[in-house]
Design goal:
- The complex is a heterodimer of chains A (301) and B (531).
- By secondary structure, chain A is α/β, with parallel strands linked by helices.
- Chain A is built from 11 helices and 11 strands.
- Chain A is globular and about 50 Å long.
- The two termini of chain A are 29 Å apart.
- Chain B is mainly α and 531 residues long.
- Chain B has a two-stranded antiparallel sheet.
- The two termini of chain B are 45 Å apart.
- Classes of the chains: A alpha/beta (301), B mainly alpha (531).
- Strand 11 of chain A pairs antiparallel with strand 2 of chain B, so a sheet runs across the interface.
Chain lengths: 301, 531
């Protein structure tokens, strides 16, 4: 019998290729999905992806995608055709206005999460018009936003951000050397687009506040983590540049009004864990997971 | 956009967390639970609650409402705490089947749903009888329009009742087919409108109570000089000294309305922050509507006069000087003396009576879903549409049953207003009993649950269950012996027993069938079901 650790490692190794394969297969059927989460960090950071396991990042066991809500029925058929089964716990989500699909492959054990039109977690990122990227992944800016929105950030998320900032600079469209128009070898964006970050973070004080806090944590982590010195310096410089930029950028009226209320009112959504395979949060508690369970998960990927 | 620095500085770096998988943000909020409770409570019922006051000489309506509110909070405590342990669709079915016995769960849940569907249909008819008809009558009286009065009477007649019931059933079946998310959005907006209309009504009544608006003068102007006093004289002696016993008897009327807020457990698995939202939402719904009901009752008495309210309810229709039914919302319109105000003050009644049937429909489809997922009903009960993921066939079945009740209510005289309360009291008692015994029958779950509170050595949920069970049991007894409620009519009694027998046979048949297909039914029914 294969040891559980070997099996998990085997699955983790398959996941990036499986993610790219699914994007391609979906495109053949006229569907648009893009990889997000840690698998996207792995795919978009070819030079520094080896840092992920080196820094202690948990191996992949699922793939997160962003997709279009208008294609939700065809996506169900597509993933069904690829051998993925809809998670019973997620079967009724749509009825309640949650645009999300969750699948698992009965043989490989790979789990797939599909977010449709918007990522609704601690903060909301609308991405309906952002999926026309050149490669299999979402844009670098959206990838960074998906990590910065996390209210209770984990070490895995900080490692992902470290690798992203170590590999890619931030920049503006048409701003010279690092204009966001620059592309990588596959035609993908090579810069983290400041304009996209600014559009969301300078219109939503809560998101801005969470993101700013996470950038602070990232700087602390980068200072203490066993990183190559050049990577550390790039991460710290990018983090500082982004914080300064966000602090100085003009803010919307909505942002300013909400800022006046501050932290007296909760500025993020509470995120619950999905109870998979029919096991409820209560059952998990019975199994000794009590301390970790409530309000535990709030990250995509 | 302008440059602006946050008055709250960047957060200090906090802790780093651990987590197993991607999370989920539920969409049903605490205020949605409260609003759902408002729709189930349907404050518009106050119209016939006040009309029933005449049967309880010496009863205090406000004190009776307070008693029903307090008991309602005990019942809500039972439902909400159990919902924290079993946050699942068809909540009460899950509690009772897991804590009491699977057969008890199905029989009591089926009984509740049968009568919820009765009210899903009948409440649509109430929209016509107690919402639209009095509003049109008030407008007709104010404007001296025979056409409007006639239209009001039509809406209070057979075809008007049928139209109202059918309208509610069809509209909300379609909305719920499009998704519960859409339903809750509609419910939210309806609730905001209800608040505005209700506040306007309270202000109007307060002005009438304080003498700024003179109801008696307005009534006499419309019904003829001295009409107000003639109504009081026609009824004879209506005023009686205060009676606590009659007040307690009368409390079943507001209870009939207020207690139903607990049915938000039917969508327990979909509520954001389910550990607190159910308890807060239910309690807030009962308290806010209990207070609103008591305030309205007080203002009705102060504005129109207790003697007039009692007299106009008691005298035969022929002796009432207006060609309209003597309901308090008609009087509110007359007191306001303004057509626009009459419409604004009618909106909360119409809105709540429009939505109460929908809230029953939602509770019903959730329970059917839960039975099916448990293997205690056909798979098609939980089959969902490919496009909206809504339980299409359950919804269609519920709508059909509701429509049958609309037909029976509109075109026969067998069905009285409280006819279904008898059958719904038993499931209420079942949940209260489940709360009482939960810490003893499911000790491990209780100890590891978030509701393992104790007063001394006694579990809090058992205390709540004991008090609530006793009160619901007493109410059930009163329903059986008091003819004024109308719950002990022959059809209600027969149907209450027949539904229970049918459900028991259903359970046994499904259990045998499932066992023969190799399913370990006992083990399955002891686990928390999948959503």
């Amino acid at each position: 019998m294969e040891p559980a650790g070997d099996r998990a490692a085997g699955i983790a190794a398959q996941i990036p290729d499986e993610a790219v394969r699914l994007v391609g297969a979906a495109a053949s059927g006229g569907l648009t999905i893009r990889v997000t989460g840690s698998v996207a960090v792995h795919l978009r950071c070819g030079r520094h992806r080896s840092l992920m396991p080196a820094l202690g990042r948990r191996p992949f066991y699922d793939i997160d995608f962003w997709g279009r809500d208008k294609e939700h029925q065809r996506l169900e058929e597509f993933f069904g055709g690829q051998g993925y089964l809809l998670d019973p716990a997620a079967r009724g989500l749509r009825e309640w206005g949650i645009k999300r699909q969750i699948y698992a492959h009965p043989e490989t054990g790979i789990k797939v999460d599909v977010f449709l039109d918007k990522l609704v977690m601690a903060h909301t990122i609308g991405f309906a018009g952002q999926l026309a990227t050149a490669g299999p992944c979402i844009s670098l800016a959206d990838l960074v936003l998906s990590k910065l929105q996390i209210h209770e950030i984990t070490s895995n998320d900080l490692i992902d951000l470290t690798v992203l900032f170590g590999e890619h600079p931030v920049g503006e469209h048409g701003a010279g050397e690092h204009g966001a128009g620059e592309t990588g070898p596959g035609g993908e964006d090579a810069l983290i687009d400041l304009a996209r970050l600014r559009t969301l973070l300078c219109d939503d004080w809560g998101f801005w506040y969470t993101a700013t806090g996470n950038l602070g944590r990232l700087a602390e982590t980068a200072n203490s983590a066993p990183l190559p010195e050049d990577v550390r310096q790039r991460v710290l410089a990018t983090t500082a540049q982004l914080r300064d930029h966000l602090a100085e950028s003009p803010k919307s009226r909505r942002w300013r009004l909400r800022a006046k209320v501050g932290t007296r009112k909760r500025w993020y959504e509470t995120v619950e864990e999905v109870a998979h395979d029919g096991h409820s949060p209560q059952e998990a508690r019975h199994d000794g997971l009590r301390a970790q369970h409530r309000r535990a998960g709030n990250r995509p990927g | 956009m302008t440059t602006f620095k946050s008055p709250v500085g960047p957060p200090a770096s906090g802790g780093i967390f651990t987590r197993a998988s991607s999370g989920l943000v539920r969409q049903v909020r605490t205020d949605d639970v409260m609003f759902y409770g408002w729709q189930q409570i349907a404050l518009g019922y106050i119209i016939f609650i006040v009309a029933a006051w005449q049967f309880y000489p010496g009863a205090s309506m406000e004190l009776a409402t307070l008693i029903a509110t307090v008991v309602g909070l005990f019942i809500a405590g039972c439902y909400a705490l159990l919902s924290m342990v079993y946050p699942r669709s068809g909540g009460d079915y899950v509690f009772m089947s897991r804590i009491l016995h699977p057969m008890a769960g199905l029989v009591l849940s089926m009984s509740l749903i049968f009568w919820q569907l009765f009210y899903a249909g009948v409440n649509g008819a109430f929209l016509s009888r107690y919402g639209i008809a009095p509003m049109l009558s008030a407008l007709g009286v104010e404007e001296h329009s025979a056409g409007l009065i006639s239209a009001g009477n039509w809406f209070g007649g057979k075809w008007g009742l049928f139209l109202g019931g059918t309208l509610v059933t069809v509209v909300f079946s379609l909305i719920q087919y499009r998704g519960a998310g859409l339903y809750f959005k509609a419910q939210r907006w309806a609730s905001y409108i209800t608040v505005v209309s209700l506040l306007s009504t309270i202000v109007t009544l307060a002005l009438a109570a304080s003498g700024v608006l003179n109801f008696q003068q307005h009534f006499d102007a419309l019904a003829g000089s001295g009409a107000y006093q003639r109504v009081i004289a026609a009824a004879g002696a209506t005023q009686h000294p205060f009676s606590l016993t009659e007040t307690i008897f009368f409390a079943a009327w507001p209870a009939f309305s207020l207690w139903f807020a607990v049915l938000s457990v039917s969508f327990g698995g979909e509520v954001k922050d389910g550990q607190r939202s159910q308890l807060r939402g239910m309690s807030l719904a009962i308290i806010t509507m209990g207070v609103a009901m008591a305030v309205l009752m007080f203002l009705y008495r102060a504005a129109f006069g207790s003697a007039f309210i009692l007299a106009s309810s008691e005298i035969p229709a022929g002796k009432f000087p207006l060609a309209a039914s003597p309901y308090v919302n008609l009087y509110t319109g007359i007191a306001g003396g303004n057509v626009v105000l009459t419409v604004v003050n009618s909106i909360w009644v119409i809105s709540l009576l429009f939505f109460v049937g929908a809230s029953s429909l939602l509770a019903s489809t959730r329970s059917m879903l839960a039975w099916s997922l448990d293997g205690m009903a056909p798979n098609w009960f939980s089959a969902v549409s490919a496009r909206f993921h809504t339980p299409t066939w359950s919804l269609l079945l519920c709508a059909t049953i509701a429509e049958i009740w609309v037909l029976l209510y509109a075109f026969t005289s067998e069905i009285l207003v409280l006819g279904g309360f008898l059958g719904q009291c038993i499931p209420f008692a079942g949940v209260c009993l489940a709360a009482l015994v939960f810490p003893f029958r499911r000790r491990r779950e209780f100890e590891s649950s978030p509701i393992a509170y104790r007063w001394g050595r006694v579990p809090v949920i058992s205390v709540l269950g004991a008090v609530a069970f006793a009160c619901v049991g007493y109410t059930f007894y009163r329903l059986l012996v008091d003819g004024a409620y109308g719950a002990n009519n022959h059809l209600s009694e027969v149907m209450t027993v027949a539904v229970a027998v049918f459900a028991a046979i259903w359970y046994l048949a499904w259990r045998v069938y499932r066992s023969r297909t190799g399913v370990d039914v006992k083990a399955q029914l002891s686990e928390i079901p999948v959503e």
